[in-house]
Amino acid sequence: MSDCVLNSSDSVKGVPHEGARDECARDECAQQEYLLTPLDRALVVATQEGLPVTARPYQTVGEQLGISEDEVIFRLENMKDQGVIRRIAVVPNHYKIGFRANGMTVWDIADEHIQALGKMVGELPYVSHCYQRPRHLPYWSYNLFAMVHGTERSQVEERAEQVKQMLGDACRGNEILYSSKILKKTGLRIASGSK
Amino acid sequence: MDRLDRQLINHLQDGFPLEARPFLKVAEELNQAGFEPGVEVTEQQVMDRVQTLLDEGYLSRFGPMFQAERMGGGLTLAAMKVTPEDYERVTEQVNAFPEVAHNYQREHELNMWFVLATETPEGVEETIKKMEEITGYHVFNMPKQEEFYVGLRFEL
Predict the structure, then answer these.
(1) Are residues A66 and A117 in the same domain?
(2) Number of Cβ pairs closer than 8 Å across A and B?
(3) Which one, of B143, B142, B133, lies nearest residue B94 by Cα?
(4) Which chain A residues have a beta carbon less than 8 Å from that of B91?
(5) By CB count within 10 A, which of A99, A154, B33, B118 is most buried?
(6) Do A106 and A162 belong together in one domain?
């Protein structure tokens, strides 16, 4: 879900926002955001749809922006170090390669166990995203979300059962939400150019 | 897809080299791993295969994966419980927000789930408020509080 690209506009250059992560006490979340330079920003815009398939892709990108190949590599490296780029890689289309079923599994986990158990669930090979999110009682009691992939629904269900066994008594309830329709999928995009 | 395609997908999910001739490097890595005895993969072959896998839709992305929250914006997952007779109208109204990046219908009482990405952290609340006014429905805001894992490797 959040592996896709960005939010928009010039404000990404703005002041790091304090207090935005009150809900998140852990150190890595308290880290300040990295301020994109105009050149970083141009690079993000130039590469968010993907890299060109040329023998020297970073040179090709550099030519579009009027900078050298070395500069492109250096800037991308820096954004990787800063955590702005998670990684440079391919993402397979999971439907097309046979993983047709995916279920958003949601779990009601005792708060005192969520750190340890969330980590454990996240490490399972068939889980692509694993987050703690807030409950909305009485409508929504689940605080752990894990996207589980499989070749078919029965496999997703088997895997969810494995997770359930693993969680034991700390889990007080769970459900699997399948998507029945994509209503919109534009991805996140940073706006090009300035306003 | 043949063996080389599968090897490539497995290999490139872990990362693509950040150096001048990355496809050459990938070819070398595959050859070193002994992709097939007696067969050498070339840079050009790797490029051709990646382009074909992209064109045929086996790869949905090739390039940097950005992390929106590290750049100062707001990001959240939100859900709504919409009645069948209003579903189409609300879908249109929600999708009309440029801040909505993905929107999925899900089989649950909470039957509409979408990702909101805003320019500023405050933008999330503002957008949700506007959305509630326009649709007449409550929006459940479920921002991540902790990230345990993101990423997935499909072993082929």
Answers:
(1) no
(2) 292
(3) B133
(4) 183
(5) B118
(6) yes
Instruction: DSSP for B37-65, please give it.
Output: TTB---HHHHHHHHHHHHHTTSEEEEEEE
CA distance B87 to chain A (A): 11
DSSP element (H, E) containing A101: strand A101-109
- Predicted TM-score (pTM) of the model is 0.75
% of chain A beyond a pLDDT of 90: 61
From the list B40, B54, B39, B50, the residue with the least C-alpha distance to B17 is: B50
- The length of chain B is 156
Return the structure tokens found at B129: 């408020």
Q: Which domains does chain B have, with CATH numbers?
A: 3-55 (no CATH), 68-142 (3.30.70.3460)
Where in the sequence is the domain holding A117, given as residue range(s)?
A: 101-178
Q: Answer yes or no: do A67 and A125 share one domain.
A: no
CATH of the domain at A141: 3.30.70.920
Q: Where are the beta strands (DSSP E) in chain B?
A: 59-66, 74-80, 100-106, 112-118, 140-141, 146-150
Asked if residue A127 and residue A76 are part of one domain, the reply reads no
Please name the residues in contact with A190: beta carbons below 8 A apart, sequence gap of 6 or more. Answer: A5, A6, A7, A8, A9, A12, A41, A44, A45, A48, B71
Q: A91 with B150: CB under 8 angstroms? A: no
Question: What is the 3-state secondary structure of A107-136?
Answer: EEECHHHHHHHHHHHHCCCCEEEEEECCCE
Asked if B58's CB is within 8 angstroms of A181's CB, the reply is: no
Domain count, chain A: 2
Task: For residue A61, give the 3-state DSSP assignment.
Answer: helix
Cβ contact A115–B98 (<8 Å): no
- Cα(A114)–Cα(A97) distance, integer angstroms: 33
SS3 of residue B143 by DSSP: coil
A106 touches chain B (CB under 8 A): no
Is A138 a member of any domain? yes
- Is the predicted pLDDT of residue A161 greater than 70, yes or no? yes
Average pLDDT over every residue of A29-44? 78
A60 within a domain of the structure (yes/no)? yes
Run of H or E including A103 = strand A101-109
Mark yes or no for CB contact B70/A24 under 8 Å. Answer: no
Structure ipTM: 0.78
